[in-house]
Amino acid sequence: MNALIIDDSKAMRTILRGILVNLGFNVLEAADGREAIEQMELSTDIALALVDWNMPVMNGFEFISEVRSSNVYDGTKLMMVTTEAEMDSVIAALEAGADEYLMKPFTTEAVLEKLEILGISSVE
Amino acid sequence: MSVKQPIAADEFQYVSTLVRERSAIVLEVGKEYLVESRLTALARTLEYDSLSSLIRELRTKKCPQLVNHVIEAMTTNETLFFRDRHPFEALQEDIIPDLIKKRADSKKLTFWCAASSSGQEPYSVCIMLREHFPQLLNWDIQFICSDISELMLKRTREGIYSQLEINRGMPARLMVKYFLKEGATWQAKPELREMITTRQLNLAGQWATIPPCDIVFIRNVLIYFDTTVKREILGKIRRILKPGGTMLLGGSETTIHIDDEYERVRAAGSWVYRVAS
After folding, report:
1. Residues of chain B with a CB closer than 8 angstroms to some CB in chain A
2. Which of the listed CATH numbers 1.10.287, 1.10.3470, 1.10.10, 1.10.155 matches domain B9-75?
3. Checking CA distances to A7, which of B83, B140, B218, B264 falls within 20 to 30 Å?
């Protein structure tokens, strides 16, 4: 099962990749929303995308809005993983179509617990 | 204070005896790492120059305030919202609907969260009740949270959580509905905080303040006690459970071979406990 990590920080992508690989995901990476859209067009079977908010070219909010503008990716769970921690940001992301929201900094346990909320505990 | 120091055998023996006398919690040999970790952090907070200095003062002066700090540090455990999903499914799909039928005449339900720590479990249950059982808003609901630590009870009453804490297990949709952002922290809305009352209580001591209950949560608590104390606690819970009431234990806990007057009942994928008829 494929997961896509979208973050302009290589360090953050590495941390999240380690967690998802341990769960059994095949992990793809993108450094901004536009690159992520291109990845999704190539691999339509992406089950999960972890999305940073603040990125160049296309930010995470714009990415989620675009992905949710059609029903092509309805099967893809989108979780915002971001330093944006204000109530308005969380509400805006959920309204745009994010399925979950995790605020940085986070612990590995918090990532796993959020994935469990999304019905993901491990990948066969 | 510098790095964490290993605890000497006599220091560990003193701390484990003190904790056992005050809380009945058993710290067996092999748990030195836990005492080192918890009390080194406390020593740093209270500005002792070492863990040994803190324990020396504990032994020589026996200051009640310091004893309380040590007991709190050793009895406060990691918790998160909606911990282990299954008990909440059991409540939602089975236990609460059943109780709503059974208590339709009195319209009164009493919940007791027996070791509520910093409040994540009771607030999770209160959120579940408000989300799925709006008809209970007109009922007389008593939700008692108890803990040995007054500091934890204060935290529960305040319902204030750091970002790291609110990240743990709380669905974002429920976070924005039931919490308010206050600076860098998130506080449970008054409608949740008003649902609960707190009582300081040592599970191994007297329980004069606990009324008859419909649901008792005592999850991941019994594991810290020896069999004799577990049996006493389970016996006391049996006597305060109302007919048809339910007790929820942690996933690794059971009454089997400890108190056989309970029956284990399957509820939506979880085992829960009722007094055998």
Report:
1. 80, 85, 163-164, 166-169, 171-173, 175-176, 180-181, 184
2. 1.10.155
3. B83
